[in-house]
Design a protein that fits this description.
Number of strands of chain B: 19
Oligomer: heterodimer
Strand order of the largest sheet of chain A: 2-1-5-3-4
Largest sheet of chain B: 10 strands, mixed
Distance between the termini of chain B: 39 Å
Shape of chain A: globular
Bound molecules: zinc ion
Structural class of chain A: alpha+beta
Number of helices of chain A: 1
Number of helices of chain B: 5
Shape of chain B: globular
């Protein structure tokens, strides 16, 4: 059986820090979870985690951090990665 | 892109009780990630000012410290030499501050809380460059130019520019409706913070605007407010769901825009109204806080991002908040001039 090659593209909200990962090639496989893919993105792009809660959105909908990449719909291949973060005055 | 870094130094960040190297530091850590951030900023500045090509084939990076007193660094010169189609382009930027300085401010707060430093005691934050035969590698993020589309202002709905000086190497145009809304919302929220997503894009004109040297212009065209962003005094929690929805709205508009950044407010006391004149006003001025930097490092990590803040500005005439726009300029967010436009 031939598994289809899949890739995901992760980016920040402004789509300026983009990373494309071909599953099975760039350190991520179909068995990795969404949460692990987000960590991979942050590490590759040298984005500080700051201990915040991070989520990936696809087509405006939050992805389950525990979902395996192999189980995602083919259309869920363009993600926006975001933390829950606050602005402040101090 | 083939990237090569030339340096003979290891970089350290330290916080000390004395302004020299006597005694033990409060902390001493690698500053290579901080230096990598400066390289990223220099690359993006070079691209936005059109001094560097957007997609070089090769990039040679040279790091040259200017000494206060070796190994204490007064400034770090980052030189980028980009090669494309047999041509070479050079861009140099001097940095006198960076993330190590903000890190020191955060640590100082903790040291004061823990009594390691008392309230009157000062501490000195420094960047050190130690000469070495084998410098530890600087791990760079992928150096990518932000997306820039070839387009003229008319095609972006810009009908008229309202006079205002622009930065020659970083022109920013903002829809006046957006500016008025941000100031109105700042006043409505009173001493609480509020804010929202800002849509826009980077475009490349055929010729630079008068008084500028680059054809690349940053447009901020619309704001998307959402009650899921929860503000109180001194803080505003952005809702990722609401921001993801703003990104969907940007797509639906079909203008090639993205959520470029967010704006937020630092409060205004309507009962007083003298917030611009009163030095003892307890409200924060419209400048980025340490927490705002954390937002930038996580939500908008690109060095091409902007941070507009509405609020008081000491010395500004009038009884209204101002909108100050900040851009990465030399290792920190700096207020920049910008022009409003009518659509
Ligand atoms: Zn703030």
């Amino acid at each position: 059986m031939v598994a289809a090659t899949r890739s995901i593209t992760m980016s920040d909200l402004s789509r300026q820090k983009r990373l494309r990962a071909d599953l099975g090639v760039d350190g991520l496989t179909r068995r990795h979870t969404v949460g692990q893919a987000v960590e991979h993105y942050l590490d590759r792009m040298s984005i500080r985690n700051h201990g915040l809660r991070w989520t990936a959105f696809s087509r405006g909908v939050k992805l389950d951090n525990k979902a395996e990449l192999g189980d995602l719909a083919d259309t869920d291949s363009e993600w926006t990665v975001m933390p829950e973060v606050s602005a402040g005055g101090i | 892109m083939n990237v090569e870094i030339n340096t003979e130094f290891d970089f350290l960040q330290e916080l000390r009780r004395e302004s020299d190297l006597s005694g033990l530091p409060l902390y001493s850590e690698s500053a290579h990630a901080e230096v990598a951030e400066l390289i990223d900023e220099a690359f993006v500045s070079g691209v936005l000012s059109e001094r560097l090509p957007t997609e070089p084939e090769s990039l040679k990076i040279t790091l040259a410290p200017q000494w206060l007193n070796e190994p204490i660094v007064a400034g770090l010169d980052v030189t980028l030499r980009a090669g494309v189609n047999g041509h070479s382009h050079e861009y140099r930027q001097r940095f006198i501050t960076g993330r190590w300085y903000r890190e020191a401010q955060i640590r100082m707060l903790t040291y004061r809380d823990d009594g390691v430093l008392d309230d009157q005691q000062t501490a000195y934050c420094m960047l050190l460059a130690l000469r070495t035969e084998r410098p530890a590698p600087v791990r760079l993020p992928p150096l990518n130019a932000p997306p820039i589309v070839d387009q003229e202002l008319e095609a972006c709905g810009v009908r008229q520019l309202v006079a205002g000086p622009l930065l020659p190497d970083r022109p920013v145009l903002i829809n006046r409706q957006l500016v008025d809304d941000a100031i109105r919302r700042c006043m409505e929220a009173d001493t609480n913070e509020t804010g929202g997503a800002l849509l826009g894009k980077l475009i490349r004109l055929q010729a630079p605007l008068p008084g500028t040297r680059t054809r690349v212009v940053n447009l901020l065209s619309a704001s998307v407010d959402d009650s899921r962003h929860v503000g109180q005094a001194l803080s505003l929690a952005f809702s990722p769901e609401a921001l993801a929805e703003a990104a969907q709205i940007a797509d639906l508009r079909g203008l090639g825009e993205t959520v470029q950044t967010v704006y937020h407010t630092h409060g205004w006391k309507n009962a007083c109204g003298n917030c611009n004149q009163s030095p003892d006003c307890p409200l924060a001025e419209a400048v980025p806080s340490l927490q705002d930097y954390q937002l930038l490092e996580t939500l908008f990590p690109s060095k091409s991002t902007l941070m507009p803040i509405a609020g008081r500005k000491l010395g500004e005439p009038g009884r209204r908040p101002v909108l100050q726009v900040h851009a990465w300029r030399g290792g920190q967010m700096t207020p920049i001039p910008w022009a409003a436009y009518l659509d």
